[in-house]
Amino acid sequence: MSESVKLNDEKRIIVVDDDADILEFLQYELHTYDEGFTINTFENGFSALDFVMQNKCDIVITDIAMPDMNGYELYQKIKYSRPNLPIIMMTGFGYDPNHTVVNAKKAGLRNVIFKPFDMNKLMAMIYQSLAEK
């Protein structure tokens, strides 16, 4: 990423995934792409939702398939309280038996990325979402 693409002020990114390896990977990669990012990671939707409701956040990146609260439920709860907060959903499913992505898109979700994903594509989604906020 060139310096001209990077943002001028610090942005807080929330990453939610029940896979600790994905969280570690994304925390490292996101900070590598842009040192202006503050990344908070959560292994479940309840902890992430609690944090988002109590803190300034600029974007949420969440897995869809998680125990207890899935990514779609998290999306709905965040959008109810913080409708302008950008959310990107990640999924490893080629086939979505619960139609989570379709339902989320009908509810207004703009960005879904499929695992394994290209970091350049994810970064483009992040920068675009932050610019439109």
How would the blueprint of this fold be written?
Layout: E1 11-16, H1 20-33, E2 37-42, H2 45-54, E3 59-63, H3 71-81, E4 87-91, H4 100-106, E5 111-114, H5 119-132
Parallel strand pairs: 1-2, 1-3, 3-4, 4-5
Distance between the termini: 21 Å
Number of domains: 1
How many beta-strand segments? 5
Approximate helicity band: 40-55%
Major beta-sheet overview: 5 strands, parallel
Order of helices and strands: EHEHEHEHEH
Characterize the structure shown.
The chain has helices spanning 20-33, 45-54, 71-81, 100-106, 119-132, and strands spanning 11-16, 37-42, 59-63, 87-91, 111-114. With 133 residues, it is of the alpha/beta class. The protein has a single domain (11-132), classed as Response regulator (Rossmann fold, 3-Layer(aba) Sandwich). The chain has a 5-stranded parallel beta sheet, sandwiched between helices. α3 (71-81) links the parallel β3 (59-63) and β4 (87-91). α2 (45-54) runs parallel beside α3 (71-81). The chain starts with 10 loop residues before the first strand and ends with a helix. The model is unreliable at 1-6 (pLDDT under 50).
